[in-house]
Write a structure and sequence with these properties.
Layout: E1 2-5, H1 21-25, H2 33-37, E2 45-51, H3 57-65, E3 73-77, H4 80-94, E4 99-103, H5 106-115, E5 119-123, E6 142-144, H6 150-153
Parallel strand pairs: 1-2, 1-4, 2-3, 4-5, 5-6
Length: 165
């Protein structure tokens, strides 16, 4: 199984456009993210694919919440079409037939994941939670409201995962 995660509004809250160093220092994982990321599942690769807006910011966020070591690979791209290429490249590199894209944006992660023939999970939270699909390519395989639902969707319930309250 290959799990490809988005970062902003999927694993961490999106920082404001006028963020400060204090905002970055106070950044925390969203509920359920730590439990999912720390699961050590045989045969499961976790990839992080995120889009860079401010040079170096995504790496700063990743380090601020301490998640770098949870991923087999981290890919930082510069625009949405490049994100699609990162998804495809990850699938080819790990040659996995069971690929899941997990993100919050219908017009990015969900669209590109669907077009590549992967399963898609929309995390309906954050800035883009109220977006509606524009066409069939933006309809996710599954919609969840919290990462705490991800274990059930992926049939990981037998992994003894315990979510914090």
């Amino acid at each position: 199984m290959l799990l490809i995660f988005d970062l902003d509004d999927t694993l961490i809250p999106r920082l404001p456009d006028n963020y400060t160093p204090k905002d970055l220092k106070n950044l925390r994982l969203l509920p359920g993210a730590e439990e999912i990321l720390t699961l050590n599942l045989p045969g499961v690769n976790k990839i992080l694919v995120t889009k860079e807006i401010d040079m170096g910011l995504q790496n700063k966020k990743i380090d601020a919440v301490g998640i770098r070591n949870y991923f087999t690979r981290i890919m930082i791209c510069f625009d949405d079409p490049d994100k699609r290429n990162c998804f495809r490249d990850s699938s080819e590199r790990y040659q996995d037939k069971d690929v899941w894209i997990i993100g919050d944006r219908l017009d990015s992660e969900i669209r590109y994941g669907n077009k590549l023939g992967f399963k898609t999970i929309r995390l309906k939270q954050g800035k883009y939670k109220d977006l509606e699909p524009k066409d069939d390519s933006e309809i996710p395989t599954v919609t969840i409201n919290s990462l705490t639902e991800l274990a059930q969707v992926l049939n990981l319930s037998n992994s003894n995962i315990k979510f914090k309250d």
